[in-house]
Amino acid sequence: MFQHTGMSVTPNKPLLAGLARTLAGAGLLNEERTYEAAQEAAKRKVPFVSFLVESKLISSSDIAWVASKEFGVPLLDINAFEFDPEITKMVAENLIKKHHGFPLFKRGNRLFIGVSDPTNLQALDEIKFHVGANTEAVLVEEDKLAKAIEKALDAADTSLSQLGNLCKSPRSDR
Question: What domains can you pick out in the chain, each with its CATH number?
Answer without folding.
Answer: 2-168 (3.30.300.160)
